[in-house]
Amino acid sequence: MKNKIALIFCLVALSSCGQNNSNTEFSYDIKQPIDSLFAEFHNLNSPGYAVAVSKDGTTLYKNGYGAANLDYNIPIRTNSAFSIASVSKQFTAACIALLILENKISLETDASKFVPALKKYTDTIRIKHLIYNTSGIKDYPRLKRSSGKSWVTFNYFDIDECISTSLEEKNLQFKPGTKWDYCNVNFMLLTKIVEKVSGQRFSDFAKTRLFEPLEMHNTLINDDITTIIRNRVTPYNLRNDLYLEAYAAQGFHLKEEGEFIQHPRNSPHYGGSGVVSTIDDLLKWTLNMTTKKFGKSEFYDLMHTTLKFKHDRDNQAFGLYFGNYKKRKIVAWEGGDYGISSQILRFPDQNISIIVLSNLGSGQAAQKATSIADILISKNILK
Questions:
Q1: Is residue 17's pLDDT more than 90?
Q2: For residues 356-381, average pLDDT
Q3: CA 313, 182, 298, 100 torsion: positive or negative?
Q4: Measuring CA to CA, how many Å separate 351 from each of 188, 373, 381?
Q5: pTM higher than 0.90 for the full model?
Q6: 180-232 confidence digits (pLDDT tens)
Q7: Contact 288, 214 (CB under 8 A)
Q8: Largest Cα–Cα distance of the chain, in whole Å?
Q9: Backbone angles phi, psi at 6, to 5 degrees
Q10: Which string of DSSP letters, residue by residue, matches 285-326?
């Protein structure tokens, strides 16, 4: 059970009625099987999903399923705003990429130049070590908070507490570049570097330099929990024994009645997460991966640059990873958190993108995305 609990907290789907935002590019025999994947969420009694498929920059299909908020029976639409968890990392990395392209920093820059607390370590941590998760810094969820409270996002904590907790460790886990180790603090530190170099708050830099030029007007860095966010969805987890025991292990003893646990996010941590966005906006992001209008090829190429270190992991780029699905190259990153599941899955050779966002912690967005890919393959759209 302990392993299951750890999995939940580490990884951590409206009727079509009234939803007139689905695209009609797909024929019925393709839309129908995609809709069938989300059949149990064709009502307002459950959290759900927002999904989209595009090819060559054209939106082929988009729709919402389930409730954005169960208190008010608000349906999920393609302009519903989701926290996207670790899918945020590619946007943090994109901000770093912009500064690199302006020759203000490089991948070889010593990160302690902007984060003096890193100077205490004998080995130099460079920006590349943060981007590629090979810094040796131990991630904050594996460490105890000085307050004794848990890191569950019911509790308030910010990135300064996360960073200070990780950097209180006297030694790195390993010499930078010798191992790969997933670490959100790496990306939190990258936001600090952006702020030092640009002189702007990270959320302002991302807005003015990234989101606004891409016309992603409903995307933001949620660094203030008091911010009003239009069309924001509410996150939920299942109220079953597994989740109830997991919450209890973290000090939260919840009632047993009801089907879902509402899980508001009370901790404004960002960098490794923290982006709030919509299907409509994320389609603009994936569109740019095809047109390369924003940043041109230089930005695209840097975002997709992989490096070889002294370990076996060499498929990570800038908040992205390369892989294969049924002999087709993919570029992706999955997100999961309390009440959140997200995935942007791209097939670059075919210029196909699949986006799945869920406000259900067990939503398995990555699996839903590959199930949509299977449909596209069976219909000879994804060749």
A1: no
A2: 97
A3: negative
A4: 31, 13, 11
A5: yes
A6: 999 999 999 999 999 999 999 999 999 999 999 999 999 999 999 999 999 99
A7: yes
A8: 61
A9: -60, -40
A10: HHHHHHH-TTTHHHHHHHHT-----SSS---B-SS-EEEEET
User: What does 141-188 look like in DSSP terms, one character per residue?
Assistant: GGS--TT-----TTS---HHHHHHHHHTSSS-SS-TTS-----HHHHH
The structure tokens 């919402």 sit at 64
Q: Where are the beta strands (DSSP E) in the chain?
A: 49-55, 58-65, 67-69, 74-75, 82-83, 220-221, 236-238, 260-262, 275-277, 321-325, 328-337, 340-347, 352-358
For residue 9, which amino acid is it?
Answer: F
Which of these, 333, 283, 289, lies nearest to 50 by C-alpha position?
A: 283
Left, alpha or beta for 194 (phi > 0: left; psi -120 to 50: alpha)? alpha
Distance CA 270, CA 59 (A): 29
Please report, as a single letter, which amino acid is at residue 281: D
CA dist 327 and 52 (Å) reads: 22
